[in-house]
Design a protein that fits this description.
With about 350 residues, the chain is α/β, with parallel strands linked by helices. It has 9 helices and 8 strands. The chain is about 40% helix and about 20% strand. α3 packs across α5, α5 packs across α9 and α7 packs across α9. The structure holds zinc ion. Zinc ion binds next to loops.
């Protein structure tokens, strides 16, 4: 304890007073240049276009819309409505939209499917794909609306599309937003039916890879970022073990730089398979952002909108958008050193 007016205190005060008064205004008005700099900076800011930010509420509107359509399995009228909605949204963001339609041979017979592709042309034909599946798993006896699987990843992807489409300058690479049909198995479990060559899952992504190959676009396809179940209010993303490590590292590090170290965690997320697998097999580097094992409502009737949070989708959207320039830099910079 120190007595009031002790030597130490007096000495400290004597040191402090000149320091404090060095900053005293002496009744002068605030320095003019300071004000001028501030106002000049403000008007310059006014001239620059305001960058569009990812809006979690908009992503939530997309989730609500899809859930309202009801269960949306492949070949259903509800999925057709969902498709029309996604196409309309993409067009309104300035994307060129096309459909990749095909007939899939499933354990339940031939089924009409369609992937949706929205393209934002860049300065080069180098392709970066951002994707999600958009159909729900078919259940005979369950009203399954898939708010997280897949409405939230579709909503997040659409909102990412709005932000990308709002930038005035042409992007360095060509972006494609791809919405896959037929990701889910028709049989109860992922590998109950089908064969290694013709699995009962990932119908749309496998077909799309075959299309890229047929059009000689596969080698231009330099990265795939896949979103799947990214809207849970208790969002936590572990590291999918199949994903390309450097892509995953860029996204995880960016997420942490944005303050989301509790979301982008290091535990392994065993997924088994997803729409990135056909791309990896074709030599395309790919990452899956997925919360599977810690999502308690997966493939259940209560995968409903109350489990979804606008904030979670914003975290994923912001992180993916902030990662894109780093990913584009990495894939467009020629390797140095050896010729
Ligand atoms: Zn699913």
């Amino acid at each position: 304890m120190t007595a009031p007016g002790s030597t130490v205190q007096r000495a400290a005060l004597a040191l402090l007073i000149p320091l404090l008064c060095a900053a005293c205004p002496k009744n002068d008005p605030p320095a003019q240049p300071h004000i001028r700099v501030t106002s000049a900076a403000r008007s310059a800011e006014r001239l620059r276009p305001i960058p569009t930010a990812f809006n979690g509420e908009r992503a939530m509107d997309h989730v609500r819309k899809q859930v309202e359509f009801g269960p949306r399995p492949p070949g259903s009228a509800q999925l057709e409505k969902t498709r029309a909605y996604i196409v309309d949204q993409l067009k309104s963001f300035g994307f060129t939209v096309s459909l990749d339609e095909f007939i899939a041979k499933t354990p339940q017979g031939e089924t009409k499917m369609a992937n949706i592709i929205g393209e934002l042309a860049g300065e080069t034909k180098t392709l970066v794909l951002l994707a999600s599946h958009y159909e729900t798993k078919r259940y005979q006896d369950m009203q399954f609306v898939g708010a997280n699987d897949p409405a939230a990843s579709v909503g997040t992807l659409l909102e990412i599309g709005r932000v990308l489409g709002s930038t005035r300058d042409k992007p360095k690479v060509t972006y494609r937003l791809v919405f896959f049909d037929g990701e889910e198995a028709f049989c109860e479990n992922w590998s109950d039916c089908g064969t290694e060559q013709q699995p009962d899952n990932t119908y749309g992504s496998r077909h799309y890879v075959s299309q890229l190959r047929a059009r000689n676009e596969l080698e231009n396809t330099r990265a795939l970022i896949l979103l799947d179940m990214v809207g849970y209010k208790n969002l936590e993303l572990g590291r999918d073990t199949l994903s390309t490590r450097w892509l995953q590292d860029v996204i995880w590090q960016t997420g942490r730089e944005l303050g989301h170290q509790k979301i982008f965690v290091d535990r392994e997320e065993g997924v088994g398979g997803d729409d990135h697998e056909p791309f990896l097999k074709a030599g395309v580097e790919a990452v899956d952002l997925i919360q599977l094992n810690s999502y308690p409502h997966w493939h259940k009737a209560d995968d409903t909108i109350d489990k979804i949070s606008a904030q979670s989708m914003k975290i994923v959207g912001d992180t993916v958008l902030a990662s894109l320039p780093k990913i584009v830099d990495k894939i467009t910079t020629p390797p140095t050193g050896k010729k």
